[in-house]
Amino acid sequence: MGRLAKTDRLDALTLATFAERIKPEPRPLPEPCILELAALATHRRRLIRMITAELNGRRTATPPFKKQINMHVALMREQVKQIDQQMKRLIDARQPLRELSTLLRSVPGIG
Question: Measuring CA to CA, which residue among 41, 40, 35, 47 is closest to residue 77?
Fold first, then answer.
């Protein structure tokens, strides 16, 4: 729209103009169980990245630090297991998630 300034007022005006001109179709918010599952998956991915970083750093660490890294990796792996269990319980307890899980697992290469 040719505006280079970055302020809340201009942002609000830009969004209002967009909505007025484009008229996007309103979409409902995802169900709370889906948001919870997404949050668990995000945290799990973070833990996996941290485990990878620790294991990569362990290669050049001195022996005392290797022991600390091993303990940290073990703790994070336990947290990943707990998150996996939480995710399974959540999926098993909620119909929309069970249906989505069944659908995804039916696709070769995903399950």
Answer: 47
Check pLDDT > 80 for residue 64.
yes
Q: Dihedrals φ, ψ of 32, to 5°?
A: -55, -35
Confidence class of residue 11 from pLDDT cuts 50, 70 and 90? confident
Given a contact cutoff of 8 angstroms between Cβ atoms, the answer to whether 1 and 17 are in contact is yes
Q: Is 97 within 8 Å of 90 (Cβ atoms)?
A: yes
- Phi, psi dihedral angles at 31 (to 5 degrees): -65, 150
Length of the chain: 111
Look at residue 46 in the predicted model and tell me its pLDDT: 98
- Alpha-carbon span 85 to 51, nearest angstrom: 19
The alpha-helical segments, DSSP class H, found in the chain are 8-22, 32-58, 63-93, 95-105
d(CA 100, CA 82): 21
